[in-house]
Give the backbone structure.
Amino acid sequence: MSVEELLEFLRRLRSEDPSYVGGEVLGSMSTEPPKYLLEAYKIFVNTNLNDPVLFRNTYRLELECIEWLSKLMYGSGYGLLTYGGTESNLTALYILREFSSGDTVIAPKTVHVSIRKACKVLKLNLVEVGVGEDYIPDVNELCNTIRRYEGRVACVVMTAGTTDLGIVEPVDKLVSTCGDVDYVVHVDAAYGGLITQFISDLDPNIPVYDFRLSKVYTITVDLHKVFTPIPCSVLLLRSKELEDFITFEAPYMPLGKQRSLLGTRTGGIAATAWLAIKSLGYEGFKRLVHDLVRRADYLSSRLADLGVEVLRRHRLPIVAFRVGNARDVMRRLWDLRMYVYPTSIPNTLRVVVGPHITYEVIDRFVGVLANMLNK
Ligand SMILES: Cc1ncc(COP(=O)(O)O)c(C=O)c1O
């Protein structure tokens, strides 16, 4: 086969997998990025972010992204771009283990699987604390657990935008309740990071979890969960001191060192994040996110009209809903190429309203679901 034929074969393979355009992908935290972001990625794809001497401009793009994203979280401009929430979380836990010399991570049960993975890789003991019937962690129980492990805590992990329900966990309340104990917090805002900072006017009940809280040391924010091509995430750090923990000697590199748990890292992620930030700016992101929230509100109210229970505490654009026999409903939706996701909550499915989930997609989905539930 010629290269063109092989490429054609790849295009066909891709077309058989679910597409975003047309709204087949309903439950995944990823979206169809604008073409210009893919173009930016392509321009820098063969540059190496871990070689800032050879690829000075690539590094500059990363720094500018970090500066902007850090400002969004009231930080001082430290951090690094990564390939996703999993890498950002792993890196955060590594840094905080080195910083705190603790061997224990404390987190509500709602913690994402990437934190469990990171604890396993880093040989950290993960202590999980229960959540209430409303899926919100009990701050007093968390604080008691922190006290029980005092002196051994590598970090406490809280999530801003939980994977199932998009809950922003009460980091502010934890810190004010448990301010007299020595510990630091990693906030996994992989999903919520690029959303919550733009919607405080729409939902004033979203807890503060950013660097304004002195115990927050690291924050994960994924760009690819809202807007950019996969992979694109950032790990934000409170201080330069934390960055030093991920700076490793590398005598063969022109700089003599590397900054990141990975080696070669494509500059494509910096270029695509940079263009996303420059093209939208604060106001553009705000408009985008407000639009997603309004569409999620619409989906929630259409589901409620059907008599379906919607589990949505904050106005993040993630809509979980309870249906009897959810596994069966999900299978039937998948048969129609409507790919919702399951959740860890019994009989509860999830739709993540990304830019590709239009009002038309919502109407079609709700219509199909209504027919299924009425049969
Ligand atoms: C809260 C949270 N953290 C981290 C991750 C991991 O992100 P990624 O799949 O980009 O590694 C996810 C993925 O859904 C998530 O929901």
Remarks:
- The longest helix spans residues 268-305.
- The domain at 3-33+281-374 is CATH 3.90.1150.10 (Aspartate Aminotransferase, domain 1).
- The mean pLDDT is 97.
